Structures are given as C-alpha cells and as structure tokens.
Amino acid sequence: MGEPDAPTTQKITDHLDENCLAFLAHSPFCCLSTSDAAGNCDCSPRGDYPGFVRALDAQTLVIPDRLGNKIADSMTNILDNGHVGLLCFVPGMTETLRINGTATVTDDPALLAMLEQDHAVPDLAIVVHTEQVYLHCGRALLRGGLWDPETQDLAAEVPSSGQIWASMSGWDPTVGTAIDDAMAGAYKVLY
Amino acid sequence: MRSRAGMIPLLVSEIVSETPSIVSVRLEASDGSPLPPWVPGAHIDVQLITRHERQYSLCGDPADLTGYRIAVLREPASRGGSYYIHSFLRVGSRVWVRPPRNLFALSEAPAYLLLAAGIGITPILAMARHLAAEGADWRMSYLARHRDGIAFSAELEGLGDRVTTHISSERGRLDLAGLLADIAPGTEVYACGPQGFIDELAGLADALPEGSSIHVERFEPKPREHRPNEAFSVVCSRSEVTVEVPAQRSMLDALADAGVSVGGSCLRGVCGSCALNVLEGLPEHRDSLNADDDSMTIYPCVSRSISRELVVDV
Lengths: 191, 314
Known about the structure:
The complex is a heterodimer.
Chain A: H1 6-10, H2 18-25, E1 29-35, E2 41-47, E3 54-57, E4 60-64, H3 73-80, E5 83-89, E6 96-106, H4 109-114, E7 125-136, H5 139-144, H6 161-168, H7 173-186
Antiparallel strand pairs in A: 1-2, 1-5, 3-4, 4-7, 5-6, 6-7
Helix pairs in contact in A: 6-7
Chain B: E1 8-19, E2 22-28, E3 42-47, E4 53-57, E5 68-73, H1 81-87, E6 94-97, E7 101-102, E8 112-117, H2 121-134, E9 138-144, H3 153-157, E10 163-167, H4 168-171, H5 176-181, E11 188-192, H6 195-202, E12 213-217, E13 232-236, E14 241-245, H7 251-257, E15 276-280, E16 283-284, E17 297-298, E18 304-305, E19 309-312
C-alpha cells in the first residue's frame, strides 16, 4: 500500500479550525463509528438540520441523540469504550471531514436545550473531544457518483425496507408490504 | 426539514457589528425590487441556508423598502440560528423570509413609554424613530448590563434627550416600578427584552395609572407547566376533515400530515404565524401570545385541547 505522502499526514490536526467549523455548520449527515470494550465495531447514520453536530469549541463537539431504532449501540459502546470516529458529509461536496476522538454520553439539561429542534429536546447527547481532524479527499465519492442525480435511480432496484425486513425476520413477503405502509407513516415523525 | 414555499429569497447586503455581541444584518432582493411594507413592531421569519428559522424584529427604516434590517444577539447557548449568523453569515449569503407580521403594533395614545432591554432594542428603536417623526409625546428607557452592550448609539443620539440609557453594572437595577408610577394616565407602555425583564414588568401591571396598559413582545416562550399530552380530534370546519392528534404529535404536525396546511414558523408559540380560530371546544393554551386562558385563538404548534374534540375554522 505504501506510505502516505508528507502533505497527507501534515493535514491531520487535533482540532477544528475555522474551515472545519464551517464544514460542520453546513453538514446535515455523518456516520458515527464506535466499538465495545472487546473491539466489536458498529457504525450508525446520524442526520439532522445542517450543523447538528455542534462545535462548542475547537476540540469539543456535541451530537444530539434523535429518535431512531431504539437500539442504543452507539451509546452502550461509548459507555464501554470512548473511542469514536465520525465521517461528516455536506450534500454536493465530494470531500468528507473525518474526526476521531473520545466520547462521553451526557444528559446535561443546559446542553440538551441547545440541541432543541422542531420543539424536540433530545434525552441524551454525545460529547466528543477531538483528537484527529482531517479532510478526506473526494475520490471515493466521485468514483461512487454519490451526489450525481443520475445515480438516484439505483434505489428503485433495491428491495423495499419492508421486503428486506420481512425476509431477514423469516416472515411472509406480504408482511413486507404492511411494514412499508407502517414505515411511511412512522417516517412522518422525525423528532 | 422545513419548506421554503411562499418565502421571499433575499441576499445579505451588509453586516455591521453594533456591539461586541450584536450584529445588524441588512437583507435585500437580488434584483433590488421593493419588499413588502411594514410598520414599527413588525417581525419577519428568517430561514437560513441550514433551514433554521427564527423571528427577528425589523429595526430599520420602514420608508426604505429596498431592504430590511434585523439585529441578532450572539447567544452562548444558541440553538443554531444565532451561532450560524454570527459565525458563518456573509455579505452575499442567501436567506429566505416571509412578509412582515405585526403582533406588537403601536396603538393610538396621548403618550408613550418605550422600554428596551438588551437585544429588545430592535422593535423599540423602530417605534422611537416613528414616534419622533410623528411629533408624538414619547420617552424611552434602554437598559443594558454593560456600556458596550448599547447598540445603535449613534442613531439613538439623533433622537435627542427623550432617550435615556441605563447601565445596570454602573447604576444598579433600574427602578421599573418608579418609572411606571410616574407616567401620565393613558400612557401606553411598549416593552421588549429578555424573559426576566418582561416577567418583572408583567408583575408591575397593577401599578399603572388609569387607562394605561403594557404591551410586551417576547422572543422566548413563557416557562409554563402543563398537563401531560393526551390525544384529541380536530374538526376542520372549512376543509371538512377530522384529524386525530396523537399524544406525541403536535396539532400543527397532525394537521400538516392530513394535508391541512396552516403555516407555522417558530414552532414554540411565540411568533403567531399558525393562529387558528376555535369555533367549539376548550383549547389548552400553551403559547406565549394569548393574554388569557379563555381566548378562542389557538396556536397549534404548541397548544392542545382539554375537550376531546376541537372545532377550528380552517
């Protein structure tokens, strides 16, 4: 694989400068990686209004825990093992911001109040102390055509979430349709 | 995510640092076309590119419809709007606004007392300039914690000695009760400022002389206790639909799900954009706009129903 170029390693810092803060302020989506004490890994999507990963200062981030599947993998992992990795996206931008650091879970009411969105205050939030921050080049997203409108037709070729869910649970395929209908209603409630 | 339907796209044309923690922002149409008119006390909903939407009082000159001016306080505990505006908004940034609404308009009165605290100066400044131009009998007190917290000082100096500033770090708390006791009967009081200031004033309403009243504008919801959420039905008299509002869903969201669109901007019961008239039933008011619990105007972004069913005019 070879060694990374010096300019590549030089761009890794331990904090968010003004440009990284601007990246985060416009980012509505990230993936959060965690692992338990034994090293078993997990990666989960997090999305909200742009800037939902809020920088409290150049080395402290706070991420609201919104309504999800109620499988609190990230939370239990963080309680076990604080090391986390974040990959942050801005729609239309091929470069991604990578942030690695140490996390804790908080229920501090003053902090949670800052994360109010559409009259919902989260019950918990994740505070991340940054240790590595760097911009990842855009080749992966360019190769994958992630923001290319023409790639959006791929979704129609994938079985629906109801079909996937029913099959993985060993249920009759007709249950999948009912799940799809139920999810369409459930997706109206985002907070 | 919030929609931008019906909003007016504008560009930031100027950002001025008015104090170490307040910026004023001028917004203009990209083609210079005139903006909808307003009178002092009006506010606009401003949506940022991040879709955060907030209400700001207009503090510029109503005669100048080539632009709107708002002012924004840097909030250390910002929910996102103030943080974005102070850190990332630039000349040329795009924003989206709704036409001005006014829940704080001046009424006819023989005399006026204007009270502003902190960022509450924004609607009060527009009122002061208007009353000065009209040759009205008015006075204004502007409270700030520190001397460098006084915004728009050059503009205020131009209004002469009817304006007094009170710096509480230098002179202690302002004697609001004394100020109100001194006003002539019939004087109307207009006040805008943070929660504590508005609450203190509300507690002094009894001290007012005959024929006077206090008008306040809040930018934060009144803190209030309310009973647990229960499900209820909303009968929409004009749309001829009945909408079930689950316990965990706001009435505004439930109406929107059913295709009954009633606007909504602040979603915290302070801006008034989602107001509906109640025709039958007993509303449970959780907003910060209604003065009394018997009001038949409901703000469905936060308010609910005590009766199992509510009939509204929509």
